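Example 3.2
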Amino acid sequence: MSKVKREGETGRTAWLLIFITVSVFCIVFFAARGRFVTPFSSPAVITLLAPFQRAAAWAGAQVQGVVANVQDILTVHQQNQLLRSEVEQLRVQNVQANEYAAENIRLRELLGYTQSARQFDLVMARVIGREPTTWTRMIVIDRGTQHGVQKNMAVITARGLVGTVTDAGPISSKVQLILDPRSAAGALVQRSRVAGVVKGTPDDAMHPRMVNVPKSQDMAVGDIVVTSGFGGIYPKGIMVGTVSAVKNDSGGLLHYAVIEPATDFQRLEDVAVIVASREAPPEPLKPPQQTPGTETDPWAAVAAMEAAKKAAQQPAPPTAPPPAAQQPAQGLPQSNEVQPAQPSAAESGNAPAQPAPAPAKPQAEQRQPVAPSTPAAGGKR
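Structure, written as tokens:
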């Protein structure tokens, strides 16, 4: 019975609440439409509608808050997507900028070497591949016969020797590194001028050796090794590397040097091919450095030397020949009389030229008979 009673009371309460809600809604609706005038200013109506107004304001505020939160969430999501895209673009640009900076450094180094090595005609190339089976022996560059690259041309970097072209295609070529045991480059020690051959070794792929060096020759750790120019492939004077160790050969008569290459073959990206070579021009003359306090003018000495060279190269001014000795005419006796000098036409001005003097007569003809002088009157004879 109690259960049935409770269910009845609950049903009545629900219907009462529904009736009140519908009534209030109708009153508010029709009042808003102007069809039903209710004295809202009365205290009873205000008191009756206050809870509903609070509830409606609270519900409206909650709905506005939810809508604002949803809009903020959507806005933040869009901004997050834009920022993520911008961050990815900046990462890509940063990577590209770093790559361009590294390439700029390498190309500047090659450009500086090109300007200093005027005895070489160089073609810049980029490493585009390596053979997996011969990673330390062979590379592929993006220059070929269309760019002037031919077989047996030397390949270098700004730091030192790389290898030689073994196969030249139209737009690409294969380069054999000096690390290859099949390669050989004539070299010499820059300090002592000891000659040898640089070859790769299978035991240490990254460090070639300088072999065929007698034990009596002077070679020490730290010496610089350059190409000797023998063989006609590698020009003379290209740096190969430095001596990192000197060891005795198995035969006992020779010793070899382990070379630390000047080129970093693990980071080889840009190279230059020597398409033509000629003798390097001599360096300009530079005066030696002088001790402070005892300086002289070196350029004055250089200018004096140049003036002396110019004076030596100029021809000497013509000198007047000495006057020839007057020889007497053949068959005529020599006369001791001195003939007076005749003035020249330039010295005489407009005066007419005088005839040349007649040749001197023989002494016998010049003597005339002298008559005996008679004494004056009254004089002694």
